[in-house]
## 1
Amino acid sequence: MSSLSSSSVAARDIVALEGVTKRFPGIVANDSVDLSIRPGEVQVLLGENGAGKSTLIGMLSGLLQPDEGRILVDGKPTPITSPRHALALGIGTVFQHMMLVPTLTVAENLLLGGRWWQRPRTEELAARVAEITSTLGITVKLHAKVSELSLGEQQQVEILRAMVRKSRLLILDESTSMLTPKGIDELGALMRRLVEQGLAIVFITHKLKEAAAFGDRISVLKLGRKVGEIPPERFRALGEQAIISEIVELMFGKQSDDPEAVERPVRTVHAEAAPLLQVADLAVAPTDNAPGLSSISFDIRPGEILGIAGIDGNGQKQLAEALAGQRAATGGSVRLEGVAIEALSVGERRRRGLRYLTDDRLGEGTVGTFPVSINFFLKQVGAAPFWRNGVEQRAEIDKRATQLVREYDVRTPSLKTPVARLSGGNIQKVLLARELAEGAKMVIFNKPTYGLDLANTLASRQRIRDTAARGLAVLLISTDLEELLSMCDRIAVIANGALVGTVENVDDARTKVGRLMIGLAA
Amino acid sequence: MSIDTAPTVSATALDATSGAATRRDILHRLLMTLGPILAALVIAGCILLAVGVDPLAYYGYVLEKGLFSPLGIQQTLTRMAPLLFLAAGLIVAFRAGMWNLGGDGQFLLGAVTAAASAPVFVQIMPFWLALTCSFLIAVVVAMIWSLVPALLRAYQGVNEIITTLMMTFLGTSLANVLVKLVFRDPGTTVPQTRTLPVEDRLPRLFDTTITSGLLLGLAAIIIVHLVMTRTAFGLKLRIVGANPRAAVHAGLGVPGLTTAVFAISAGLAGLAGAVDIIGVQGNVRADWNPAYGLAVIPAVFLARMNGFAAIGFVFLLSVLSIGGESAARRLGVPNHFTLVLVSIVLIVLALAEYVDHRYNQSRKA
């Protein structure tokens, strides 16, 4: 949009963000984001996990404060200091996870947050709810317990709660992630009726089809930056397919000024070399909150980097964990150097040279309260020369840790510093040092640059390239297509726990992978 | 992000700076521990004043009986023996992140089996072998008693706080039943087990009444401390305690380690019971339950699960309980005032910890 048009319509914005930046240690979560939210419009905020959607919502709902830039409410700069303040300003948020008390009735839930010295005004509420629900064409059972409602009904209650509190702006954070297809369609219809009444809606999703079906205006976030916007006029002019392909271009397309873009050096992988890792028909049962895997098959030769592309949450983590032995496989075989390892324990697989660099650096990769030095050897506890007859050899540990700190350029005040005090980039270096140390033959990198700043991202990528150059087999799981295109020899695409296609990383790989990712045949 | 810009320091420089830091750290720790204890003594003194008792006289009697009189200090040191074993068991469990609160049940079952087996064994075996066998039986029985919470926690993720507490109620009742029905001494009218003759008990130290169980307890807690801090096994347990998901990721057998932790912890509690019986009591009377297991928990927390600090706090606890009993008798204060004192110490320490944490946070921000 030109600056002229944006200033002339700015008065219509209920809420506008101007150059909002939010930083967390080691991460720029939002980088000068502009956003205008208008009544009568569904503003779709689209982006992958880690793109900065949740941070943006946190700032709009008063949970976080921006480091730079300002938020305008009704055209006036207004710091939103707390969730209570956000509600008072008419900003209601329906979070991804339900925020209702399951043991209370719907009416009691709606009355929560009233003044504690007053009796709950039940009649008043019933009248108000009747008024709202009749115009929206939904029915809500006020006296049913929340635990008896379906997830879709619970969501309606949450939306109703925002309406009862006279919200003018409704934020729906990943609201479709737990709904059935029918529930999703109902939510879409409800959003349409709400905006027809003059409400503004911000709808957060990472599903392209929903964005195209329900939105009026789409803003695409990528790594904290807003990389593009489709205004309503264009939105109406384009068909659904055209919109989706434009979004794909915005989300995965190459930017001319991208500092991360590096030409992939041509490496020669000996096609005749025997595969180092062979996976055949690997299957994992689904769990309550994670998809399963079905018939995953691929080979990786020495010196080769195989990329796994896909929208986050399609089984990437399950694949990595099943290969590392952390997650029980229900079928299939995994062979390392021709030897079947699918029945071996995590530790035994590691001893044979299979390494897994987790994406959850603090959650499972390290013990945050333990010193840096011990975290280097977390997977070797008891092994010589760092332990002899089970007794810790502190001098040996410190000597080797000092070497690793120097070799991998870990910036730490001391070896005794608890590892959680380091920045994300330095924790990642500790993990890289641990996994790439002697004996590695095949390494799984799960989102190795997720949340890192540029310098650390580039350094990590160089480590991975060097790893492959040493003749190791590399499996690189990433949601950043740019990263995969700049490093991999082949890219496989994962969707719903299955590999939907594998693409040689040559000229038109970008388009092919992008098409596979949104469910079209390459 | 000062950490990012800080240059990587060489190893020698690291040691020098961290050495000074550790000393300051220890000083800070001491201040944070002794300060609240003094404050707690003042608060407890105010309570004594309020009920019309001279606090100085009370504290004076506590110190005189628990610490300064020759007989009192011997009783105090003897009392330490079972407490040290219990503390050692709790250190293993707490450091591994498992809250074994079933110490009393494990203690009593160990005590009863030791009391039942020792008088039989001493008649058929040499003295040392007999006592060793009794200790072993007590350990095994306590370990078996911990198996239910251990397996539930290891394979089903059932909260061990609840299961160990429930097992402790069952354990104390079972111990009672065993005394009254199975191991009852036919020679007496009081329901109790057969009494181990004094000459067959653990020898006393030198010419005092202090039991040699004290030395065993000291050895146990120091060994536990060294195992937890210096060995691969201890590190594995601490990884499980600090971050179970990291333990899985690192390939540790978490269920096996969990079961081992419960076994060791319960075994030490059973040993505590055996040491108290074979060293001091000689028999178990029905309905006997000194509740040492619960009393030791605060001491272990105050010591932050450090074995050496735990020795100090167990000593303090013994002084308070031996001296408190005497002072209470002489001044007409309820016997339970010792517990009031200990709990005031705990609350003040927790408050101090909270204030210290808030202060550190605000200084960082």
Note: Residues 367-438 of chain A form one domain.
## 2
Amino acid sequence: MDVPLLLTLFLTFFKIGLFTFGGGYAMLPLVQAEVPARGWLTEEGLIDFIAVSESTPGPFAVNIATYVGTETAGLAGAVAATLGVVLPSFLVILLVAKGYEKFRDSRLTRGVMTGLRPAVVGLIGAALVSVALTVFQPAGVGAVDWALFGVSAVIFGVSLALLFGAKLHPVAVIAVSAALGAASGFVVK
Amino acid sequence: MKNGKAKTAGTLFLLFLKIGAFTFGGGYAMIPLIERETVEKKQLLQEQELLDVIAIAESTPGPIAVNAATFIGYRCAGFFGAFCATLGVILPSFVVISLLSLVLNAVGGNRWVQYAFRGVRAGVLALLVRALVSMYKKCPKSAFSYAVMGAAFVAVAVVSQFVKLNVIFVLLGCAAAGLVYAYLAQRRVKT
């Protein structure tokens, strides 16, 4: 068993868990900064996993921790990373659960949340830009493959229409975009 | 009483196992199910308490689902209840993803799977747009809010391309700005 690797997994995901506010994809920029940099997943692999996570039960943070842990160090890795991402939640909630009315109404909490709520919106925006670059310019900025760009643009447009127009469930949108992607393989290699 | 707590902890475990297994997309998607199971069916919580759970889960670190499970577990059956509820909510994810990673590795090299994922990536981009829109709608609107949104965005999307910038410091900076702003706003009200 690679103990230093397990420890790194635990600590990395502890950090991600500790600085995730508001749930959802609020922690995506942090994952983008930590996970590909350590060679645990590629940028593309991370985006693919968002789709996998949307199509399987459970919160994204727990799913990505389990996945990265399994990929890098098997079952022990999965346990280390998942424990890491859950522990901050668990400990903080235990701390505040008793006097939670005081915590909720305290000036400190309110002040901090006044800053964090909009910050999370900005961070998701930044994650969106970075994902868009990976989707539309996978070979790097400047080296545009126009055929691939066209395929991605069409699928992105269709997905937006299905999500916002037809109010389709995210899992259905992922299924449609996967089918369109596979179909595009006949035209664009 | 001891026995009652152990029984409640068992109920909590099964309840959150179910919640963890049947919500896709995590977090907010779980709240209606939590409401139906804990408030309406099992009557572990009052409606008002559930609102408190959501408020606390949002203002503490970590995934909403895990926070809510730990908090409800603790309220109903102490530490052991918190432990059981949290274990229940993460177990389905853990099992499904561990098994799925084997499948993904087996099929990942296939050309057609790669084409499919090429499409999926564009679909994910649309999902992120949706997440951004819904977070934006939930966020209180003020000049200060917009300034923080813009600053956090520029810091991570632009500045970090040139200077090594830790996302955590951006978050801490925004939290500090929020504290100062709330303090100043309160002083203005007083005087």
Note: The first helix of chain A runs from residue 3 to 18.
